[in-house]
Amino acid sequence: MRYRLSTLLILFTALLLGNVLIDFGLVWYVGKNLPGSNVLDRAVMSILFSQVLLLGFWLALGDTKWYWRLVVTVPATMLVAQSVVWGSRDNLKSSNLDRAAYFGLLALIFLTALVAVFVFLIPLRRLRKWRLTWQRVAEGPTVQQFHIGDLMLWMVPIGVLLAAVHLMATLDQTQGKGLIDLLLNLAGLAAIEWSAMLTAFATRRRYLALLYLVVFTLVVGSAFAAAGAYQLVRSIESRAVVTLPWMYYFQQACWRSAAVLFSFVAAALVGLVNCLILRVLGCQLMLSAKQEAMTDSPANFSATAT
Protein backbone atom coordinates (compact mmCIF):
# COMPACT_ATOMS: atom_id res chain seq x y z
CA MET A 1 0.00 0.00 0.00
CA ARG A 2 1.32 3.43 -0.98
CA TYR A 3 1.01 6.65 0.96
CA ARG A 4 2.01 10.19 0.18
CA LEU A 5 4.98 11.58 2.05
CA SER A 6 2.85 13.95 4.13
CA THR A 7 0.53 11.09 5.10
CA LEU A 8 3.48 8.91 6.08
CA LEU A 9 4.91 11.63 8.29
CA ILE A 10 1.57 12.09 10.03
CA LEU A 11 1.11 8.36 10.56
CA PHE A 12 4.69 7.91 11.78
CA THR A 13 4.27 10.79 14.22
CA ALA A 14 1.01 9.28 15.45
CA LEU A 15 2.78 5.94 16.00
CA LEU A 16 5.53 7.65 18.00
CA LEU A 17 3.07 9.63 20.12
CA GLY A 18 1.01 6.50 20.71
CA ASN A 19 4.07 4.73 22.11
CA VAL A 20 4.87 7.75 24.31
CA LEU A 21 1.32 7.83 25.69
CA ILE A 22 1.51 4.11 26.47
CA ASP A 23 4.82 4.69 28.25
CA PHE A 24 3.35 7.52 30.29
CA GLY A 25 0.31 5.45 31.26
CA LEU A 26 2.34 2.40 32.29
CA VAL A 27 4.84 4.42 34.33
CA TRP A 28 2.02 6.33 36.04
CA TYR A 29 0.15 3.08 36.81
CA VAL A 30 3.21 1.44 38.33
CA GLY A 31 4.04 4.57 40.33
CA LYS A 32 0.58 4.54 41.93
CA ASN A 33 1.11 0.95 43.19
CA LEU A 34 -2.19 -0.15 41.69
CA PRO A 35 -3.10 -3.87 41.36
CA GLY A 36 -0.59 -5.68 39.18
CA SER A 37 1.96 -2.88 39.30
CA ASN A 38 4.58 -5.16 40.86
CA VAL A 39 4.40 -7.41 37.78
CA LEU A 40 4.36 -4.48 35.36
CA ASP A 41 7.33 -2.80 37.04
CA ARG A 42 9.96 -4.84 35.21
CA ALA A 43 7.89 -5.07 32.03
CA VAL A 44 7.73 -1.27 31.77
CA MET A 45 11.50 -0.98 31.55
CA SER A 46 11.61 -3.75 28.95
CA ILE A 47 8.98 -1.94 26.88
CA LEU A 48 10.89 1.35 27.11
CA PHE A 49 14.13 -0.27 26.02
CA SER A 50 12.36 -2.17 23.24
CA GLN A 51 11.13 1.12 21.75
CA VAL A 52 14.63 2.61 21.93
CA LEU A 53 16.08 -0.51 20.29
CA LEU A 54 13.58 -0.25 17.44
CA LEU A 55 14.69 3.34 16.91
CA GLY A 56 18.26 2.07 16.86
CA PHE A 57 17.37 -0.47 14.19
CA TRP A 58 15.98 2.28 11.98
CA LEU A 59 18.97 4.52 12.71
CA ALA A 60 21.27 1.78 11.44
CA LEU A 61 19.20 0.40 8.56
CA GLY A 62 16.98 3.27 7.42
CA ASP A 63 17.20 4.33 3.78
CA THR A 64 17.50 8.11 4.22
CA LYS A 65 20.67 10.10 4.87
CA TRP A 66 22.30 9.42 8.24
CA TYR A 67 21.73 12.97 9.53
CA TRP A 68 17.98 12.73 8.82
CA ARG A 69 17.82 9.47 10.72
CA LEU A 70 19.78 11.04 13.58
CA VAL A 71 17.49 14.08 13.67
CA VAL A 72 14.50 11.75 14.08
CA THR A 73 15.85 9.06 16.42
CA VAL A 74 17.65 11.22 19.00
CA PRO A 75 14.65 13.47 19.82
CA ALA A 76 12.36 10.42 19.76
CA THR A 77 14.62 8.65 22.26
CA MET A 78 14.66 11.71 24.50
CA LEU A 79 10.87 11.87 24.24
CA VAL A 80 10.68 8.30 25.55
CA ALA A 81 12.84 9.36 28.51
CA GLN A 82 10.64 12.42 29.06
CA SER A 83 7.51 10.25 29.12
CA VAL A 84 9.01 8.38 32.09
CA VAL A 85 9.62 11.67 33.90
CA TRP A 86 6.05 12.79 33.23
CA GLY A 87 4.66 9.50 34.52
CA SER A 88 6.89 9.58 37.62
CA ARG A 89 6.16 13.21 38.50
CA ASP A 90 4.35 12.46 41.76
CA ASN A 91 7.00 9.99 42.92
CA LEU A 92 9.78 12.44 42.10
CA LYS A 93 8.08 15.11 44.19
CA SER A 94 7.64 12.81 47.19
CA SER A 95 11.26 11.61 47.05
CA ASN A 96 12.71 15.12 46.44
CA LEU A 97 14.49 13.97 43.28
CA ASP A 98 15.41 16.55 40.67
CA ARG A 99 13.40 15.96 37.51
CA ALA A 100 16.08 17.42 35.26
CA ALA A 101 18.73 15.11 36.70
CA TYR A 102 16.41 12.11 36.42
CA PHE A 103 15.64 12.96 32.81
CA GLY A 104 19.33 13.41 32.05
CA LEU A 105 20.18 9.99 33.49
CA LEU A 106 17.42 8.25 31.54
CA ALA A 107 18.30 10.08 28.34
CA LEU A 108 21.95 9.11 28.74
CA ILE A 109 21.08 5.43 29.23
CA PHE A 110 18.63 5.33 26.32
CA LEU A 111 20.94 7.24 23.97
CA THR A 112 23.78 4.87 24.87
CA ALA A 113 21.58 1.92 23.95
CA LEU A 114 20.60 3.67 20.72
CA VAL A 115 24.22 4.22 19.70
CA ALA A 116 25.23 0.68 20.72
CA VAL A 117 22.57 -0.84 18.46
CA PHE A 118 23.66 1.42 15.62
CA VAL A 119 27.29 0.32 15.97
CA PHE A 120 26.45 -3.40 16.06
CA LEU A 121 24.15 -3.24 13.03
CA ILE A 122 26.40 -1.18 10.77
CA PRO A 123 28.08 -4.35 9.36
CA LEU A 124 24.69 -5.57 8.15
CA ARG A 125 24.16 -2.30 6.34
CA ARG A 126 27.64 -2.10 4.84
CA LEU A 127 28.32 -5.76 4.04
CA ARG A 128 24.90 -7.35 3.50
CA LYS A 129 23.08 -4.20 2.25
CA TRP A 130 20.15 -4.60 4.66
CA ARG A 131 17.67 -1.74 4.50
CA LEU A 132 14.46 -0.66 6.19
CA THR A 133 12.97 1.15 3.23
CA TRP A 134 9.85 2.61 1.71
CA GLN A 135 11.34 2.28 -1.76
CA ARG A 136 10.06 0.00 -4.48
CA VAL A 137 12.53 -2.78 -5.16
CA ALA A 138 13.51 -3.24 -8.81
CA GLU A 139 13.19 -6.66 -10.37
CA GLY A 140 16.42 -8.55 -10.74
CA PRO A 141 18.42 -11.51 -9.46
CA THR A 142 20.42 -9.35 -7.04
CA VAL A 143 17.28 -8.29 -5.18
CA GLN A 144 15.83 -10.41 -2.41
CA GLN A 145 13.94 -10.10 0.80
CA PHE A 146 15.25 -12.00 3.78
CA HIS A 147 13.78 -15.42 4.39
CA ILE A 148 13.24 -17.80 7.28
CA GLY A 149 16.86 -18.95 7.19
CA ASP A 150 18.04 -15.47 8.20
CA LEU A 151 15.64 -15.57 11.12
CA MET A 152 17.02 -18.86 12.39
CA LEU A 153 20.60 -17.74 11.75
CA TRP A 154 20.14 -14.95 14.28
CA MET A 155 17.81 -16.62 16.75
CA VAL A 156 19.56 -19.86 17.62
CA PRO A 157 23.20 -18.90 18.32
CA ILE A 158 22.39 -15.56 19.94
CA GLY A 159 19.76 -17.09 22.23
CA VAL A 160 22.04 -19.90 23.39
CA LEU A 161 24.97 -17.53 23.90
CA LEU A 162 22.95 -15.02 25.92
CA ALA A 163 21.47 -17.72 28.14
CA ALA A 164 24.91 -19.22 28.86
CA VAL A 165 26.59 -15.87 29.54
CA HIS A 166 23.76 -14.70 31.79
CA LEU A 167 23.92 -17.92 33.81
CA MET A 168 27.67 -17.50 34.28
CA ALA A 169 27.20 -13.88 35.33
CA THR A 170 24.56 -14.92 37.85
CA LEU A 171 26.92 -17.41 39.45
CA ASP A 172 29.68 -14.80 39.55
CA GLN A 173 29.61 -12.66 42.69
CA THR A 174 32.28 -10.11 41.69
CA GLN A 175 31.84 -6.35 41.81
CA GLY A 176 30.15 -4.63 38.93
CA LYS A 177 27.66 -7.45 38.57
CA GLY A 178 24.74 -5.01 38.46
CA LEU A 179 26.13 -3.39 35.35
CA ILE A 180 26.75 -6.79 33.77
CA ASP A 181 23.16 -7.82 34.47
CA LEU A 182 21.89 -4.60 32.87
CA LEU A 183 24.02 -5.12 29.76
CA LEU A 184 23.00 -8.76 29.43
CA ASN A 185 19.32 -7.95 29.82
CA LEU A 186 19.69 -5.22 27.23
CA ALA A 187 21.39 -7.68 24.88
CA GLY A 188 18.58 -10.18 25.46
CA LEU A 189 15.97 -7.55 24.67
CA ALA A 190 17.89 -6.57 21.53
CA ALA A 191 17.84 -10.17 20.33
CA ILE A 192 14.10 -10.40 21.03
CA GLU A 193 13.37 -7.12 19.22
CA TRP A 194 15.51 -8.13 16.26
CA SER A 195 13.63 -11.41 16.00
CA ALA A 196 10.30 -9.57 16.28
CA MET A 197 11.33 -7.25 13.44
CA LEU A 198 12.39 -10.17 11.23
CA THR A 199 9.08 -11.89 11.95
CA ALA A 200 7.00 -8.80 11.19
CA PHE A 201 8.70 -8.25 7.82
CA ALA A 202 8.79 -11.90 6.78
CA THR A 203 7.28 -12.50 3.33
CA ARG A 204 7.19 -16.30 3.36
CA ARG A 205 6.08 -18.82 5.98
CA ARG A 206 4.84 -16.06 8.24
CA TYR A 207 3.14 -18.40 10.67
CA LEU A 208 6.33 -20.43 10.98
CA ALA A 209 8.29 -17.23 11.62
CA LEU A 210 5.77 -16.27 14.31
CA LEU A 211 6.15 -19.70 15.90
CA TYR A 212 9.93 -19.29 15.94
CA LEU A 213 9.54 -15.90 17.59
CA VAL A 214 7.29 -17.32 20.30
CA VAL A 215 9.66 -20.21 21.01
CA PHE A 216 12.72 -17.95 20.95
CA THR A 217 11.11 -15.44 23.31
CA LEU A 218 10.07 -18.16 25.74
CA VAL A 219 13.49 -19.84 25.69
CA VAL A 220 15.48 -16.64 26.21
CA GLY A 221 12.95 -15.28 28.71
CA SER A 222 12.96 -18.55 30.65
CA ALA A 223 16.76 -18.56 30.82
CA PHE A 224 16.80 -15.03 32.21
CA ALA A 225 13.89 -15.88 34.53
CA ALA A 226 15.73 -18.89 35.97
CA ALA A 227 18.84 -16.80 36.55
CA GLY A 228 16.76 -14.06 38.18
CA ALA A 229 15.02 -16.56 40.46
CA TYR A 230 18.34 -18.04 41.51
CA GLN A 231 19.71 -14.58 42.24
CA LEU A 232 16.63 -13.71 44.33
CA VAL A 233 16.86 -16.92 46.39
CA ARG A 234 20.54 -16.28 47.11
CA SER A 235 19.72 -12.71 48.14
CA ILE A 236 16.98 -13.87 50.53
CA GLU A 237 19.29 -16.48 52.05
CA SER A 238 22.02 -13.92 52.67
CA ARG A 239 19.63 -11.56 54.50
CA ALA A 240 17.55 -14.10 56.42
CA VAL A 241 18.19 -14.23 60.18
CA VAL A 242 16.01 -17.30 60.70
CA THR A 243 15.41 -20.42 58.65
CA LEU A 244 12.58 -19.88 56.19
CA PRO A 245 10.33 -22.65 54.84
CA TRP A 246 11.16 -23.95 51.38
CA MET A 247 7.68 -23.01 50.17
CA TYR A 248 8.48 -19.34 50.72
CA TYR A 249 11.58 -19.61 48.53
CA PHE A 250 9.57 -21.48 45.92
CA GLN A 251 6.84 -18.85 45.81
CA GLN A 252 9.29 -15.96 45.57
CA ALA A 253 11.25 -17.73 42.83
CA CYS A 254 8.09 -18.43 40.83
CA TRP A 255 6.93 -14.85 41.20
CA ARG A 256 10.27 -13.45 40.03
CA SER A 257 10.43 -15.90 37.13
CA ALA A 258 6.93 -14.97 35.98
CA ALA A 259 7.73 -11.24 36.13
CA VAL A 260 10.95 -11.62 34.13
CA LEU A 261 9.34 -13.86 31.52
CA PHE A 262 6.40 -11.48 31.18
CA SER A 263 8.77 -8.57 30.60
CA PHE A 264 10.37 -10.34 27.64
CA VAL A 265 7.00 -11.36 26.20
CA ALA A 266 5.76 -7.75 26.52
CA ALA A 267 8.88 -6.45 24.77
CA ALA A 268 8.44 -8.94 21.93
CA LEU A 269 4.80 -7.94 21.54
CA VAL A 270 5.64 -4.23 21.44
CA GLY A 271 8.32 -4.80 18.82
CA LEU A 272 6.10 -7.03 16.70
CA VAL A 273 3.13 -4.63 16.75
CA ASN A 274 5.24 -1.57 15.92
CA CYS A 275 6.98 -3.33 13.03
CA LEU A 276 3.68 -4.66 11.70
CA ILE A 277 2.32 -1.11 11.69
CA LEU A 278 5.39 0.04 9.78
CA ARG A 279 4.85 -2.79 7.32
CA VAL A 280 1.24 -1.70 6.80
CA LEU A 281 2.57 1.79 6.07
CA GLY A 282 4.69 0.32 3.27
CA CYS A 283 8.03 -0.25 5.01
CA GLN A 284 10.08 -3.28 3.92
CA LEU A 285 13.16 -5.03 5.23
CA MET A 286 15.33 -5.73 2.19
CA LEU A 287 18.65 -7.41 1.45
CA SER A 288 19.33 -5.41 -1.67
CA ALA A 289 21.56 -2.71 -3.05
CA LYS A 290 19.37 -2.21 -6.14
CA GLN A 291 16.26 -0.17 -5.44
CA GLU A 292 13.94 2.12 -7.35
CA ALA A 293 12.57 5.18 -5.59
CA MET A 294 8.82 5.14 -4.99
CA THR A 295 6.84 8.29 -5.73
CA ASP A 296 6.12 10.46 -2.68
CA SER A 297 8.06 8.14 -0.36
CA PRO A 298 10.32 9.19 2.52
CA ALA A 299 13.25 8.33 0.24
CA ASN A 300 12.56 11.63 -1.50
CA PHE A 301 14.14 13.38 1.48
CA SER A 302 17.47 12.54 -0.12
CA ALA A 303 19.25 10.14 -2.36
CA THR A 304 19.84 6.55 -1.37
CA ALA A 305 21.55 6.41 2.03
CA THR A 306 25.27 6.24 2.07
Distance between the termini: 26 Å
Mean pLDDT over the residues: 76
> N-to-C SSE series?
HHHHHEEEHHHHEE
* Spatial extent as radius of gyration: 21 Å
Number of helices: 9
DSSP strand count: 5
How many discrete domains? 1
Numbering strands along the chain, what is their spatial order in the largest sheet? 1-4-3
Structural class: mainly alpha
Sheet-strand content, in percent, reads: under 5%
Low-confidence stretches: 137-147, 289-306
The largest pleated sheet is described as:
3 strands, antiparallel
- Which term fits the overall shape? globular
Description:
The protein has 306 residues and is mainly alpha-helical. It has one domain (5-295). The chain has nine helices and five strands, in the order αααααβββααααββ. The chain has helices spanning 5-31, 37-61, 66-87, 89-94, 99-127, 148-171, 177-200, 206-239, 246-280, and strands at 130-133, 136-137, 144-145, 284-287, 291-292. A three-stranded antiparallel beta sheet has the order 1-4-3. Helix 2 (37-61) packs across helix 5 and helix 2 (37-61) packs across helix 7. The longest helix is centred in the C-terminal third of the chain and has 35 residues, at 246-280. It starts with a helix and ends in a 14-residue tail after the last strand.
SSE topology sketch:
Layout: H1 5-31, H2 37-61, H3 66-87, H4 89-94, H5 99-127, E1 130-133, E2 136-137, E3 144-145, H6 148-171, H7 177-200, H8 206-239, H9 246-280, E4 284-287, E5 291-292
Antiparallel strand pairs: 1-4, 2-5, 3-4
